[in-house]
């Protein structure tokens, strides 16, 4: 039996959202505030990215921070139909899953350590534990003991590596742009120097590293950054998944027996 | 060959395009299907239990009937239909929100993929502890030292998965598991024996006893399982209880599961302020 003890709280607590009850109904909120700001005022303010930043950091962003975050959101909005998470959403869509399941299916597949939110979390932790060190020294030390996998992609550290044996050009090009923004901070700059050092081994920024650097520069924590990475990728997962719901179940490949090899 | 020189080589992926090579098994349409080399239609269906099949799919091991019965009992003891428990509460909230039963069951099960409770992910830590502990013990380390090497909490008590239950100390699942182990003809192996010794020491010194996680980790280590294998087998262990709590809430009015008044949530944040 669970007895009333001091172990568990009597109430949940939040520093994010405050509701004032209607005087005639304790379940109905007549005023809601997000980190102190009246939600109706924020609705009139009409800036989703700024409100998102407020939600996770407790303060509204500066114009520079807002611009950096918005650019990252555009970069992450669609992982594309070849990403594992998008393919998971598309498989759900084409196979006539409950429509409400398509996004969660994609998001679950977006939670992994390979190009997913777990890699973003690990990458933010990597930045935080190495930013005080020289990127040249860190890369030199890592490369001196690094043993790449024989086949497949290499991630020398979370957020940096190869993509199909090449450098991820979109990630690198995006970082070049983001680094020039006024909101860019130490992580983007440090990461660019680090990426430059490892490029001779065919590795550079990955999308997860780009996201991690931006989140870190914006003062967004590792757990929050990981979740936001999923959130910001969600539109693409959903769009591709829903697109398939309008097509017949035969619209995506099902391999014939001769292309399915069962190892004994 | 240096890595740089192989950068344009995409043969690894080309060899896998439009082709699946599986060691898990597969379906031969109209003929049969296989799991880890076993014919599902001729060897498994009608011959083995569903639990044996779960274990086979999760590990590639076709265990004997007694071990699968042990797992089945363990699954029964790890899936209480009590909607206070975190994963089940998610099931109930889904019921209150009228989601599908599958969404509810999967959401609750996903939540129980936790380092704090649930019996799946916690098996990784529990098995890692007892297998390392046995190695150290066999090398001459005493139980006191094994325990003192473990991480401590703020009250200076050792934090070891399997030796303190989150809700309360007494674990009602332990005795039925011990009886089941005996009834199915299993003896106490080296891991379980050491787990009892550690439990007794912790109880005497810190008031912490072995719980079902510690017991299960030790028993399954004695049966030759790794932490990953147990995690894989038990990935859905809470599912049934979540489903039950979903149904319970679904059969009541929407929003009637633990309704909250505005002041049931304490606010500790920034005081009201105007936009700049």
Explained architecture:
The complex is a heterodimer of chains A (264) and B (276). Chain A is mostly helical. Chain A folds into two domains: 32 residues, no CATH class; 175 residues. Chain A contains eleven helices and eight strands. Chain A has a three-stranded antiparallel sheet with strand order 2-3-4. Chain A starts with 11 loop residues before the first strand and ends with a strand. Chain B is mostly helical and 276 residues long. Chain B folds into three domains: 41 residues, no CATH class; 47 residues; 113 residues, Cytochrome p450-Terp, domain 2. Chain B is built from 13 helices and five strands. Chain B has a three-stranded antiparallel sheet. In chain B, a hairpin with a 3-residue loop joins strand 2 and strand 3. The mean pLDDT of chain B is 93. The interface between A and B is large, with 51 and 48 residues. Strand 8 of chain A pairs parallel with strand 1 of chain B, so a sheet runs across the interface.
Q: Can you give me a brief rundown of this structure?
A:
Chain A is mainly α. Chain A contains eleven helices and eight strands.
Top keywords for this entry?
heterodimer, A: 264 residues, mainly alpha, 2 domains, 3-stranded antiparallel sheet, B: 276 residues, Cytochrome p450-Terp, domain 2, 3 domains, 13 helices, 49% helix
């Amino acid at each position: 039996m669970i007895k009333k003890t001091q172990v568990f709280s009597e109430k949940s607590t939040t520093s994010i959202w405050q509701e004032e009850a209607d005087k005639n109904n304790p379940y109905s909120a007549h005023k809601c505030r997000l980190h102190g700001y009246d939600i109706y005022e924020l609705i009139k303010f009409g800036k989703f990215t700024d409100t998102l930043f407020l939600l996770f950091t407790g303060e509204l962003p500066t114009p520079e921070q807002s611009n950096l975050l918005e650019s990252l959101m555009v970069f992450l909005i669609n992982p594309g139909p070849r990403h594992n998470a998008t393919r998971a959403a598309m498989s759900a869509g084409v196979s006539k899953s409950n429509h409400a399941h398509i996004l969660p299916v994609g998001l679950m597949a977006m939670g992994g350590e390979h190009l997913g939110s777990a890699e973003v979390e690990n990458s933010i932790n990597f930045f935080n534990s190495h930013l005080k060190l020289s990127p040249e020294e860190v890369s030199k030390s890592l490369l001196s003991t690094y043993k790449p996998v024989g086949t497949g992609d290499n991630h020398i550290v979370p957020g940096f590596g190869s993509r199909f044996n090449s450098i991820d050009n979109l990630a690198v090009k995006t970082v070049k742009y983001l680094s020039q923004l006024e909101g860019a901070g130490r992580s983007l700059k440090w990461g660019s120097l680090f990426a430059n050092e490892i490029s001779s081994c065919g590795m550079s920024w990955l999308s997860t590293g780009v996201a991690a650097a931006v989140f870190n520069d914006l003062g967004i924590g590792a757990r929050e950054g990981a979740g936001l990475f999923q959130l910001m990728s969600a539109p693409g997962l959903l769009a591709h998944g829903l697109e398939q719901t309008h097509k017949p179940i035969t619209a995506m490949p099902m391999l014939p027996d001769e292309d399915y090899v069962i190892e004994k | 060959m240096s890595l740089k020189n192989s950068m344009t080589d995409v043969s690894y992926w080309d060899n896998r395009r439009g082709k699946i090579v599986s060691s898990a098994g597969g379906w031969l349409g109209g003929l049969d299907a296989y799991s880890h080399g076993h014919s599902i239609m001729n060897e498994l269906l009608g011959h083995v239990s569903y639990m044996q099949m779960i274990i086979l799919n999760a590990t590639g091991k076709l265990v004997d009937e007694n071990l699968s019965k042990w797992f089945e009992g363990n699954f029964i003891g790890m899936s209480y239909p009590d909607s206070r428990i975190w994963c089940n509460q998610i099931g109930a909230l889904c019921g209150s929100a009228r989601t599908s039963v599958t969404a509810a069951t999967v959401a609750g099960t996903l939540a129980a993929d936790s380092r704090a409770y649930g019996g799946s992910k916690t098996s990784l830590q529990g098995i890692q502890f007892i297998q390392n502990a046995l190695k150290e013990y066999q090398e001459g380390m005493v139980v006191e030292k094994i325990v003192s090497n473990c991480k401590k909490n703020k009250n200076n008590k050792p934090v070891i998965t399997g030796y303190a239950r989150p809700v309360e100390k007494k674990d009602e699942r332990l005795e039925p598991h011990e009886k089941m182990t005996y009834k199915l003809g299993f003896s106490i192996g080296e891991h379980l024996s050491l787990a009892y010794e550690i439990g007794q020491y912790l109880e005497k010194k810190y008031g912490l006893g072995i719980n079902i996680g510690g017991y299960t980790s030790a028993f399954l280590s004695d049966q030759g399982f790794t932490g990953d294998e147990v995690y894989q087998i038990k990935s859905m262990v809470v599912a049934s209880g979540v489903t039950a709590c979903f149904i319970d809430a679904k059969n009541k009015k929407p929003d009637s599961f633990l309704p909250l008044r505005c002041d049931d949530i304490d606010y500790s944040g920034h005081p009201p302020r105007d936009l700049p």
